[in-house]
Amino acid sequence: MTTIFLLAGLSERMGKNKLLLPYNGKYLFESTLLSALTFSDRIIAVLGYEEEQIRKALASYRDVEIRVNSDYEKGQKSSTLVGLEGVWDDVAILPGDLPLLKDDDWTIGLRYLSLCLPSRPEYESIPGNPVFVPRRMKKGLEMSSKPFKEYLNDEGICLYPASIGCIYDIDTPERYQNLLNNDTTIPDA
């Protein structure tokens, strides 16, 4: 399975690049990356905003392939499409700001993937990440004019209960401060 690791966003609500914020002695995105490396055969990191800084931060991860989305301002779908180019196996789509992902957030999705079913974790009825897409659906995903979420819902995506880590993205200064304080409540969700 290939993970499309999305590191291209503008971090507008944070006010600065959230992926480069310090967390547990590393950059914030590294916790998410280490989780993905445990379960993925291949990682494709898609960069855009502050590409050079992210590229430098990724330098020690030799097995991570880097692609650049020159249209990153168009959002996650454009970055995902860049990541999907030339990928022929099953994929997981994963934003870089989920430092609290747990192994079970991955393993159940991988079971669905082995049955050729699209899936994603959820926490308290909130859909989370990673999103698992079987190779049989890749072409449809690429060709669809619909948002990915809508396309996958139409195709019958399977949702499974997971940890708060699947939805605990770090989009605001308040959420980041909560993370540093080990407060995983979701007041701004």
Q: How would you portray this structure in words?
A:
With 189 residues, this protein is α/β, with parallel strands linked by helices. The chain is 32% helix and 21% strand. It is built from 7 helices and 10 strands. The protein has a 5-stranded mixed β-sheet, with helices on both faces.
Brief write-up:
The chain has 189 residues and is α/β, with parallel strands linked by helices. The chain has 7 helices and 10 strands.
The CATH architecture: Alpha-Beta Complex
**Class from secondary-structure proportions:** alpha/beta
Instruction: Quote the average pLDDT.
Output: 94
CATH topology category name: Spore Coat Polysaccharide Biosynthesis Protein SpsA, Chain A
Question: SSE order in H/E notation?
Answer: EEEHEHEHEHEEEHHEH
- Within CATH, the superfamily carries the name Spore Coat Polysaccharide Biosynthesis Protein SpsA, Chain A
Computed CA radius of gyration, to the nearest angstrom:
15 Å
Which regions contain 5 or more consecutive residues with pLDDT less than 50? none
Strand content: 15-25%
Number of strands: 10
Quickly name the level 1 CATH class. Alpha Beta
Distance between the termini: 30 Å
The tally of helices reads: 7
Strand order of the largest sheet: 5-4-1-6-9
Structural descriptors:
189 residues; 10 strands; single chain; Spore Coat Polysaccharide Biosynthesis Protein SpsA, Chain A; 5-stranded mixed sheet; 7 helices; 3-stranded mixed sheet; alpha/beta
